[in-house]
Task: structure prediction
Amino acid sequence: MLLYLNRRWGKIDAAARGRSIGSRLAICWLCMVLAVLSAALLLLSATGVLSHTASQFGETAALQQKNTAAIFTAQMDVLTAQGIELSNTVSGEVESFLAGRGLSFDALNDNPELIAELEDMLIPALKSAMEGSTCSGAYFCLDATANTSLSTSETSRAGVYLRYSGLRSAHPSGTVTCFRGTVDAARRNGLQLHNRWNPELNTSLIPGYRQVMAWDGDRLSGGCLWTERIPLLDTWESVTLLCVPVRDGAGNVRGVCGMELSNLYFSLSHSTVSGSYGSFIMLLAPMNGDTLLLDKAMLGSTEGTDLSASGEMRIQSGRDYDTFTWNDTTYLGKYQIVPGRLADGHPLAAVTLVPESGYRHQVQTARLGWTLGSLGFLIGMLVLAAALSRRFAMPIAQGLEAAKSCEHDWQPTGIREIDELTVYFHSRLRESRPEDALPRQVESLVSELIDRSKGLTSSERIILRYYAEGYTVKDIPGLLFISMGTVKGHNSHIYSKLGVDSYDALKAYLDVLRRCGRLEELLQSGKQRSYV
Result:
């Protein structure tokens, strides 16, 4: 009985502590709003509005372009400095050579033996310049020829042109061959002749040669020029040449020297850079307006693409990146003008680009990721909203059913308003009954207990009243001036007559009778007898 009443009072407490309908509705509505937002997010992701791939690619391309420009600029600056050093060395050696023999510079014309002797002396300086540089070759040519009677004497000039053969890496090494120069000078220095060897250089094939020869400035750096990419005579290779003036002691330009960058060496030196958008290609190209002149450009590695050094490439500037079109193929990237004088006057651009297909693949991947993430979020919100709605609706239905019924064994729903309503309905039902009206099960137990109490003696009834007033078994001997054994004997009779099995059970029944207002009826029933 006590358990039943405690359970009912616990339901009242649970009703007071339960979450309100408003808070549950707020959670449900929040889930629905999140579901709507996730649906909008899904739509925006599918259309690519939320994708920042363009700006992210622009930042990546700009960073890569900055590195490319820095690499090209540093390489050209270093080679220019080394070319100037080579010019000073050649100038000094030629001055010393001629002065030691009491000859003028013009004495070199029509004197093959003297030219061969001078070249023999200068070859070690060329080899030393090559070994300390990031280049594929080095050369010098003097404004003199071994035979002025030839029809080509106006463009044929004495000099030495050394090149690496069989390049396989960006670190030049291996056999140095003599591409131009006298046979005797090459042999005395242990050099192999190139299979396309000639004794002199054809200056008509060097763009800017006449510009350098006509230069009359003070600082050698002001007279340096770079050529566009030019074919190397009688070979399958193309090269870019650095041209530095060679002056005599009086400041007259007596020739040209410099370094060579072959297309093979440039390709080996500047490999593609892999990234999430594909492989970035680096190239150094003359620029005419909004057009890159690829047929005059030096290309890094083009592995994985169809790009070649031919034709022109159109540039269309964009907000995040630039678009490059070549032979109906589109590339994306950035470009930047770098220092360096070209013989034809065109500005030189360092370019970093990637095939558009790689970028489009990354865009699709990013869009797919956003779409799948948004779809997953939407499904999660819909499932959560459905689960919360079900969890919200079912307790309401159960609570209303409990409120309509007269059952006392109902379970709190956890919704404060519903549980309070159920408790209120049940309290109204109880108030509509007579004051002594109890549930049938409780009424039966109470009536049975009162009937049994009629058999108690006055002494047992006095002890029972003390228990009802809150005294314990240990208090009874002092109250009635009897022994504990006598008290235990009375207790045994009380338990037997009332049908309980312990003191705790007796106290529980007394508490129930007190709560329902029938305790005095228990204590007053039966014939009153004085204690003897």
